[in-house]
Amino acid sequence: MAAALKFVFSSFAVRRDVLFLFCAENMKFGPASRRIVSRLGGRLRGAAAADHFTGKSGSSLDVIAPAGLDVPRLVVIGTGKGRTLTSRDLTKLGGAAMGKLPKAAAAATIFAELGSGVLKADQVADLALGARLRGYAFDLYKTKRKDDDEKGPKRIDLNFACSNPAAAEKAWTRGAAIADGVVLARDLVNEPGNVLYPGEFARRASALTKLGVGVEVLDVAAMRKLGMGALIGVAQGSAHEARVVIMRWNGGKRGADPVAFVGKGVCFDSGGLSIKPAQNMEDMKGDMAGAACVVGLIHALAARKAKVNAVGAIGLVENMPDGKAQRPGDIVKTMSGQTIEIINTDAEGRLVLADVLHYVNKRFKPKFMINLATLTGAIVVALGQEYAGLFSNDEKLAERLIKAGDATGERVWRMPLGPEYDKLIDSKFADMKNTGGRSGGAITAAQLLQRFVDKTPWAHLDIAGTGMGSPQNDLNRSWGSGWGVRLLERLVEDHYER
Q1: What is the mean pLDDT of the chain?
Q2: I need a labelling partner for 259 at 20 to 30 A (CA). Which of 26, 62, 148, 189 fits?
Q3: Is the whole model's pTM more than 0.70, yes or no?
């Protein structure tokens, strides 16, 4: 299994660990790091010259058993020109350092300072967050491992040498809560469909009660009583019954309207009777990445005791072909009373979200609703895997999401909404149909969702390109990225906590 990580915060000192230093261009070090470098005489600059290392951003210099230091290895990571680094930059640096840690290393000391000087407590916590996220691995089902993995340490101690260890450790309490939320989301996305079916997903979400979260689970009988015909229709072809899970964190003022997050939780999507091609269908175990993000977010908010009232709601189904499965041409009645003609059973996520959005809006009357869903391949065609698609009926909410995305690196790109697109989902037999064809596919899906939010400020994040199979980077080496937890946590912290 992947080694467990233990985080320690201490004053600047050299221990017999792998040692990490940061430097800006032209080999500019912070004061504590300069004292370390001075012990090497000119040997470090000689090694840097031989390797053409100058401290450019993203570069690194690896020195084994450096003479003059009682450490097994010295790694210097470049931070680029001497500009002020943002929280996002520091998180990436922490991930980059973790990525340079040798597999056999059981301990490392990271000097938490840049060429411009020592880091503040919250900046040290950003470094630690990056290291934690980069250190994640999902190998639960590997029974045979490579020899190198077997010989590796069972635990890695990461020591962050800094100017105020007590303050850094306190700041890390918040960072650890966010990291735990991301890890939870990643674990959920990475699980196979035979393990994480709707009932099991609901059970795992219910574990949030340990953090003080109120959790309700609606079964099919309860959903039928509420009139959730669209959601139930998606699930009726599966041996696993649908569930809706409502998670409530009340950390704000008593009676204050909550903020609300809704996630698509299709635990496996075969496409139903409109079955998908066999190639890459295994990836459809990740069609619940939106729901995974919501669970991870509520975990993060509760673990750091966020001063906000928040609701997380996830619709959990399996979309399977069966004699009981819904057919193209069927018409379902949603909880809102609106009817939808099923054109393609593989456009199922919007049906799940339609009922859950209406339910949350009607019951909780939130300040805003944000839903996340691996909803369309069309958004991947439009934006690739670096940005999620953002659709919104509210300018302020959209602007805040864009800024939170820029701050965390979980970026969103605003996409259009407009009544002209509604024509594409007009139905001859019902109030709407569940797909408008290939043209503007991500937009017509959003147009359908918008019909179930009334005038409540709302945003839809299409995370088909970012939630699963996402690009490998300094913070993520996992198939399931946990995308969205840090974005939405930042949104809440910046704008909605009292």
Answers
A1: 96
A2: 189
A3: yes
